[in-house]
Write a structure and sequence with these properties.
The protein is of the alpha+beta class and 402 residues long. The strands form five sheets. The chain has a five-stranded mixed β-sheet. A three-stranded antiparallel β-sheet has the order 2-1-3, with helices on one face. Strands 9-14 form a two-stranded antiparallel ribbon. The N terminus and C terminus are likely disordered.
Length: 402
């Protein structure tokens, strides 16, 4: 079994299957997002690390637990059992990652029989759909004896539960895979989502199966949705799909939608919550996620403007409160030996206790013994109102990196 493409080498398609839920609903979003650079986040990088570990285990017939305490380098695609020899791109393999990835690996293995065609991190050709290029499937299995296709996707995020039914991303992967095996026939498609860190009523592994006719019907919807995005004047349609859109902070359609919905609570004379009709309460709850997502993106945009030296009017950057920490070279064994205290008393599993907690153990007369081992880091830069009593600060490279 071999991987066709490293997860870290994935390119960015204009109409990416992973964002199909958004451009199906909002045809204008791909044109708008094209103006923004491709960026990542610590959450996306963490997901990449989990996918890389899963791929490595499946391809090499290994267990995720074999790498507990090790590291993944998301830039090189290498998995290390211990420390990462490279400086950049390394993510620790935590117990949580081991557990989540092992569930994915076990699920994949349960789907394989001798004679199956297997592909991991597979690039799928979607050029037969106008405006589309490719997609990358986490795990694909085709069984010649039954002409059944299985698509399994690892969702490592824990913030938003992903539904498997009518999932545009998996259906688009199915369309690309069906093209690959069109000469061999296709009876049905089973789609599997493994989402180990986000609670769901149906559990962390969810399955949905359709037949070849259902997939053919989806192809018409896919062609229509892709075609709609090619219109230079394609409309913007706000909704819960806006959460991760790059255009969200500056999108007039989303802004108008958010302000209109916010009037339910933030009008000049807001309705008392106690007096709200049940239907109004239901509307507020239904729209809350979209409102929160829009506000968060506005805050992120404002913070970046301030870091760039141009904070929005009546705002400023200040340092948040920071807490004392032990210096990097201070370990529990070293501290236990120095203070003549059992090592277990210095640990809040699996980390060293805070300086304040250790001082409490020592008592007032001995707390000065650790003064030279402690430092107070600079606080994070946060954006606040100009009336905030804390002094404003200017960002520097060191703080931005931190």
């Amino acid at each position: 079994m071999t991987a066709k493409q490293a997860h870290t080498d994935r390119a960015h398609a204009r109409l990416s299957p992973s964002s199909a839920h958004r451009w199906f609903a909002c045809p204008g979003s791909p044109n708008a997002e094209a103006a923004f650079p491709n960026t990542t986040s610590v959450f996306a990088d963490e997901g990449t690390a989990a996918h890389t570990l899963g791929e490595h285990c499946i391809v090499n017939d290994l267990e995720a637990s074999d790498f507990a305490g090790g590291h993944v380098n998301i830039k090189t695609g290498k998995v290390h059992r211990e420390e990462c020899p490279e400086k950049d791109g390394c993510f620790p393999i935590t117990d949580e990652m081991v557990e989540g990835v092992q569930l994915y690996v076990d699920t994949v293995r349960s789907l394989i029989l001798p004679g199956d065609d297997i592909e991991v991190e597979c690039k799928l050709d979607l050029t037969h759909i106008p405006g589309m290029e490719f997609g990358t499937g986490d795990f694909l299995r085709y069984r010649p004896s039954t002409k059944e296709l299985v698509i399994c996707d690892l969702k490592y995020g824990k913030g938003v539960p992903v539904e498997v039914e009518e999932n545009e991303q998996l259906l688009t992967y199915a369309e690309g895979t069906a093209k690959r095996f069109h000469n061999r026939g296709l009876s049905r498609v089973m789609m599997v989502i493994v989402q180990p860190r986000c609670p769901h009523p149906k559990g962390p592994v969810r399955v949905w199966t359709i037949d070849a006719l259902d997939l053919a019907e989806f192809r018409f919807k896919l062609v229509a949705a892709a075609e709609a995005t090619r219109n230079p004047d394609a409309p913007f349609v706000p909704g819960d799909h806006c959460k991760f859109c790059k255009k969200a902070p500056t999108c007039d359609a989303l802004r108008g939608f958010a302000l209109k919905e916010a009037e339910l609570e933030f009008a000049d004379e807001p309705v008392s919550v106690a007096d709200m009709e049940p239907a109004v309460i239901a509307t507020v709850i239904k729209k809350a996620d979209t409102l929160k997502a829009w506000i968060k993106r506005v805050e992120e945009r404002a913070h970046q403007m301030a870091l760039d030296g141009a904070p929005p009017p009546d705002t400023k950057l200040v340092e948040s409160t920071s807490h004392r920490k032990f210096k990097d070279e201070v370990s529990a064994p070293y501290l236990a030996d120095m203070l003549d205290i059992p090592e277990d008393d210095l640990l809040t599993e699996p980390k060293l206790k805070s300086p304040a907690a250790v001082e409490k153990l020592l008592g007032a007369k001995r707390k000065k013994e650790i003064e030279s081992l402690v430092y107070k880091p600079r606080g994070k830069l946060i954006l606040v109102a100009a009336s905030d009593p804390r002094p404003s600060v200017k960002p520097d490279a060191e703080q931005e990196f931190a």
